[in-house]
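Risk register update: the risk of archive-format incompatibility is retired. Evidence:
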Amino acid sequence: MVELNKIELKKKIETEIQKTRIKVAEYRELTRPIEPENAIGRISRMDAINNKSVIEAALRKAVEKLDNLNLALIKVDDDDFGLCIHCHKQIPLGRILIMPHARSCVSCLR
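Archived output:
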């Protein structure tokens, strides 16, 4: 990968890490237990439980993405960065720019 692209890619990864950290913090805030200040009905409680489970799933995905982004930032200077972990071919630059934490090419994901 060209050195200039690596510098730009590092900046993109760092920006994405910042955004993802904010999302993780927001999701953690939303999944905190809610103190029963007001009595709510059974339907409202079921709705709240459903919403919480959706947000918890989003939190898990965001934490996984953050871990992958941190790994990508560490490995961006490695010689094998941008190579598919399965077929060892170069991952297209467009995919890396969209998903810098991607470790597989699209063909191997199928």
